[in-house]
Amino acid sequence: MAKRNAQDELVFLPLGGSNEIGMNFNLYGYGPPHDRQWIVVDLGITFGDQTTPGVEVILPDPTFIEAHAHRILGIVLTHAHEDHIGAVSRLWPRMKAPLYATPFTAFILREKLREEGLLEEAHITEIPLGGKIKLGPFELDLITLTHSIPEPNGIAIRTPLGTILHTGDWKIDPDPLLGPPTDSDAIRRLGDEGILAMVCDSTNVFVDGHAGSESDVRDALIPLIGGLKGKVAVACFASNVARMDSVIRAAEAAGRRVALVGRSMHRMAAAAKSVGLMADIKAFIPDTEAKQFPGNKILYLCTGSQGEARAALSRIAEGSHPHVSLGQGDACIFSSRVIPGNDIPIRTLQNKLADRGVRLYTERDHPGIHVSGHPCRDELAQMYAWARPQIAVPTHGERRHLLEHAAFARDLQVPQQVTPRNGDMVRLAPGRAEIIEEVPAGRLYVDGGMVTPENGDALRERRHAAFNGVIAVSVVLDGRGQIVSGPQVRTLGLPNDADNSVDDVLDDLADEAEEAVKRMKGANRDDDEAIETAISRSIKKASQRIWGRRPVVETTVLRI
């Protein structure tokens, strides 16, 4: 263990994943304030929604730590979910620190780095389950946990000022089917040694009891799939390899062969096989050949459980998938939960499937076909009983989750609790835990394949146009600034009713634009930019009068 100096501090800094579920990006710093060394734990993404039109992927903003990139000792990844590793391939060039992961996670990460052309440059060190890493003053022990993906790890981070247990995502599953159960003995030993702080998953803090075991899901899927007659599709998270395995074995028990539908399914299956999982199942049927099988002899394992527009199941529901179709007498099982915010696209997807005559099975009407990968309150209480930390630092949750988690930890007699937001630097030691600094923390949008600022002009204009509509005005002037043709006006996304036909409204707007030009005098008639500004202002005022909105107005002035 490194020696401790009088000025040394141990700090925790979330730049993503605190006050939100997703986009996990956690930093631990050690040393004097002017010369801290850092490790990064996870570097994930979140997804766009109705408030970010055109943006599917959102990244954490690494600006703060980028300025200290030369003092980053390593990026350690707890597991292979997108909200924990999805940003690595885009943000690694801004940090260029060594990467550490267990074999399954490393397989997935290599594929992502290959797609970005970084595989040769970004070095990944594979760490075995239960392995150790020494990074400057940090000594890291991987703790085997259970979750909804292979090889989930907690991390015991030992420093001269104390030990932190960073749980990552976890649950307590006595029978996870794939991989070992939670290493409770290791956590108890850490508790006996003394844990300064536990940085812990808060996702299900409002849910009583236990999340449930993956073995229970398998027990529910086997009779359900066995009793269906037509073609069967099952939608689940591709990363939940244990669920994939359960579906496959339920299909085989029913005499069905399995076709994977969706790129993520193929990628995760390849990663699982690379570490020895799913070794004894039958070969998958290519979706191009699956239609040759009788309906009661095939099962499609599909991506798209969250209603993603371009995923396999949405294309099947639209009838646009080139190889897979479902219809009357067929069934679709949603072996997944509804992620908050995805309610509308999932409902739309399910309605489209139902309209085709497909019978739907969801966790709402068949609760046993899905269990969460995150700890409920009884599991949280058990983890605190094993670890016995001095400080509880809730993470992986919205604000209400973090505050409830802190209150729960207080009820469990944890001496201190702190609930940072993204950008809040928490000093864990020496002294009492407290927020000592606020650093820049924000989001970057992947928009049209480009990484753009959170409040960039393009998205702001897109939002404005989506709500207010667009008006395009063009006018042709001669050399003296007299109107030769136009103004011509076109609208996009603006309403009309029986009392105001489209032509009448356009004529009114054209008159407003013409008057704006006629009011201009002298040299202003020679200034195209001034004319465009005057027309745009006039059109916006008229739009406010007609519709109560101020649309985006694009004005073009041509000269002859």
What characteristics describe this protein?
single chain, 560 residues, Metallo-beta-lactamase, Chain A, Rossmann fold, eight-stranded mixed β-sheet, 15 helices, 27 strands, 30% helix
Structure report:
With 560 residues, this protein is α/β, with parallel strands linked by helices. It has three domains: 9-209 and 372-453, Metallo-beta-lactamase, Chain A, CATH 3.60.15.10; 214-367, Rossmann fold; 469-559, Ubiquitin-like (UB roll) (Roll). The chain is built from 15 helices and 27 strands. The chain has an eight-stranded mixed beta sheet with strand order 8-7-6-3-2-1-21-22. A seven-stranded mixed beta sheet has the order 9-10-11-12-13-19-20. Helix 6 runs parallel beside helix 7 (241-253) and helix 9 (312-318) packs across helix 10 (343-355). The longest helix is centred in the last third of the chain and has 20 residues, at 528-547. The model has no long low-confidence stretch (mean pLDDT 93).
Summarize the SSE layout with pairings:
Layout: E1 9-16, E2 25-31, E3 37-43, E4 46-47, E5 55-60, H1 63-66, E6 72-76, H2 82-85, H3 88-91, E7 99-101, H4 103-115, E8 124-126, E9 132-135, E10 138-144, E11 153-159, E12 162-166, H5 184-193, E13 197-201, H6 214-226, E14 232-235, H7 241-253, E15 257-261, H8 263-274, E16 298-302, H9 312-318, E17 331-334, H10 343-355, E18 359-361, H11 377-387, E19 391-395, H12 399-411, E20 416-417, E21 424-429, E22 434-438, E23 443-447, E24 450-453, H13 457-468, E25 470-477, E26 483-492, H14 502-518, H15 528-547, E27 552-559
Parallel strand pairs: 3-6, 6-7, 7-8, 12-13, 13-19, 14-16, 14-17, 15-16, 17-18, 19-20, 25-27
Antiparallel strand pairs: 1-2, 1-21, 2-3, 4-5, 5-23, 9-10, 10-11, 11-12, 21-22, 23-24, 25-26
Helix pairs in contact: 4-8, 6-7, 9-10, 14-15
